[in-house]
Design goal:
heterodimer, A: about 900 residues, alpha+beta, 4 domains, 6-stranded antiparallel sheet, 27 strands, B: mainly alpha, Arc Repressor Mutant, subunit A, about 55% helix, membrane (chain A), transmembrane (chain A)
Chain lengths: ~900, ~110
Amino acid sequence: MHSNPPRLADRFLQFFCAPHLLEEVQGDLHEEFEYQVKHVGARRARWRYWRDVLGFFQPRYIKRKSSQYPQTYLFSLNMLRNYFKIAVRNLLKHKGYSFINIFGLATGMAVAILIGLWIYDELSFNTYHKNYDRIGQVMTLINHERDGLGHNHSMPYPLSTELAINYRSHFKHLVKASWVQDYILSTGEKKLSRKGQFMDQEAPEMLSLTMIYGSWSGLQDPYSILLSASTAKALFGDIDPTNKPLRLNNKVDVKVTGVYEDLPLNTQFHSREFFGPFELWVTQNPWIKERALQDWSNHFLTIYAEIKPNDTFENVSSIIKNAELKNLANYKEQAAQNPQVFLQPMSKWHLYGFSRGVPDTEPMRMVWIVGIIGAFVLLLACINFMNLSTARSEKRAKEVGVRKAIGSVRGQLINQFFSESFLIVVLAFILALLLVLPILPWFNNIAEKQLTVLWANPYFWLFSLSFILITGLLAGSYPALYLSSFQPVKVLKGTFRVGRFASIPRQVLVVTQFTVSVTLIISTVIIVRQIQIAKNRSVGYTRDGLIMLQMKSDDFYGKYDVLRAELKKTGAVYEMSQSMGAVTNLASGNQGFEWKGGDPEEQFGTLAVTHEHGKTVDWQFVQGRDFSRDFPGDSSGLIINEAAAKLMNLEHPVGEPVRWTWWRNNKVLDYKILGVIKNMVMESPYDAIEPTVFYIKGHNGGVNFINIKINPAVSASVAIPKIEAVFKKIVPSVPFDYKFVDEEYNTKFKAEERIGKLATFFAILAIFISCLGLFGLASFVAEQRTKEIGIRKVLGATVANLWQLLSKDFVVLVIISCLIAAPISYYFMNEWLQKYTYRTEISWWIFAASAAGALTITLLTVSFQAIKAALMNPVKSLKTE
Amino acid sequence: MKRTFLGEFEEIVLLTVAILGEEAYGVTVTQELEQKTGRSVGFSTVHTTLQRLEEKGFLASQMGGATAERGGRRKRFFTVTAAGRKALVEVKQVREELWGALPPQTLQLMGG
């Protein structure tokens, strides 16, 4: 029986054994194997063979003998220098292509860098705080009978006491905080309105504020205040303000105990321009001590907590779960909602927040959308780069032939093409950085960010480096691996032909590019239309010349009549009123209304106003009349909007009685409907109008905004100083801090307008980059077909014929792209529009117009090259070889 | 006088090569060793030792002609050089001197 040594062992030996030793070693092994087969049998011989082969696996047998001929060094410095020299010459020889290549890629990279910075900023939100990983907000998860699951940010006061007494050992810090509000800070003559929050004394340490003056213990004194650096500067200039006195809301004197570095824009606490001690807030708001300390139904407190270093949020959350529920014996309604207390980690505050109690997926979705768009723009640029370099590379087949003929090995050619593509990518990256620097301030403005290039961040460089590597490899791989395989004989003889299907991948890439671009164009048009339609929505009142100011101090109250009289006396003011909340905001809503056939569970917007409010904001009546001082009974009158009239479903609402039971103390008030006004857009202009009632006096808080309608005959610039003078005289302690209603109203469009601007920016870039690539390809094709065009011309083709010939291919590609882009963009935009109640239609003409636009741009791009080629003198094009 | 140290295994391999004369190569040396000493010897160990002895100058080697067996692969034949012979003689002398110095009664006790 003939037996062979194990194949695998033999292969392994051939793999590792040095060639000059292999012959004798393998020979000896085989001979020994045959001998062993005879003596001990095939099976054991095979085992032995394996053992022997493995015995040879040692340095002595693996090390290769140095060759007696000089090796071809793949990384010889001279050759590398030569590659770069050739690369630079190639770039300079074809300046147009080089420009398109480098500039297109740089644009894409710049966008990628901007978007990368934006995403980094979003993801690193709040990381400014050193204890970021351990800070959380105490929240409750409630199960509401009617509205389903909800998340509550506001906590009842006794919960903080409960946590502090029975669960304190699970927290490193436990901090109660007030709501964030505008306060008037004054020192001497200087008065400023600043947002601030009152928190327990541990807050500065928990938030690891960077103190410029003073220390973290600055909130221990109940009459102290910590200022942000910019607030301190605005109040005191550049000096150290510690121990300086400051007056809060013209009421209470406090002492500055410290100044902290401004919190950066990407922190949740950024809006707080000062911090005060929680105790001070309690003493300034007597109702807390009077009613709230033991009331589990009054939710108004924010509670922050820092857990112990080795603990987890899940663990602490499970421990404090029932801290509220177990105390709700006397609160049947709330106990029915089964409130579960939990900690929301700081890392989730920004991107996984809650909007009106339910998880808000919008921020995270925005990060994804922006990221995907960025990736696509980058992809477009890379496609350009690949398309152009593959198209160009066929021209270099001869160079490959010559290089091979004089002794280049394949590895060297691969090196050469790779070093060329890396040179371009690196140049593009440098250019991209140079582009980002001037764009960044503008981008920050649109995106409302404080982005900076992260020069010192290792991740930034890691990303950039890996990106350069990937693009360089991707774009360089085709010429490097394909061209280097050419046979020199064929190439140099001229019999070499590129296959018929060589241009297919290029066409697929062009279709991809234009699909992305057209999708972006369609989306942009729809977004802009959605904003436009909301802006054109009739708002039901007149914003022109309407200004408003919040009554931030008690000094405003009780001066209504004298203010109104003085203002009207100036002649600059047409009318003035006071209202609950701003005109652009539905500040309050309640249940408990009863009318003929009505349901007390229905929710209405409830706003207190003064008699002159209608005249000031110019609301428009459908039925009935306005409040009037001539009828004393009007103080128990109601004005309702159309939405409310519809909800009440009364045939003749005017004159109908409405009974309102105040939920807190079951006090009953009887009202009569005076009039019905047209719907006023007070909340989001994209939403349906809330049913709303307006009344003169109520039990539901008071008025806190002053609205002033400037006399239409007087310009605002003349009127404002006059109004200011009146306020200085009557309410001297408060800064005259007003807002134009139309400006305030426009801020409602901010989020959408930002999306619109960004989408426009990306769409323009996408189409620009795509056209840049198309331009390059068109000129390449025209150049390739110079001879063909020459012959066609000689045979009588007209310029129009030739133009058609050269443009047709590209136009077909763009039409295919439009056909693909239409359903994609319809799907995404339809989904986006679903979140708006008041929304635009996606009509067919948007698709048609976008397609027509894309085609026009394509034709313009391609025609330039096509006509240039068609106009060429055939004598010249046929003569050259 | 500088003496080259010869390990025990090296000495045996060197001797075996000398015994085999013209026919000494990897396989024969290994088989001869196994037969003579009765111990199982690693194939690679023998090869390595042969190479090391050649590096030390005790052995010389040359490739033989193409062979019909073992897939036509050539063999590397080893021969003992003058230095090798000298080293073997020296080792033998040392041994004999040592044996000679052994007291007769000890020799008897060992059963010799």
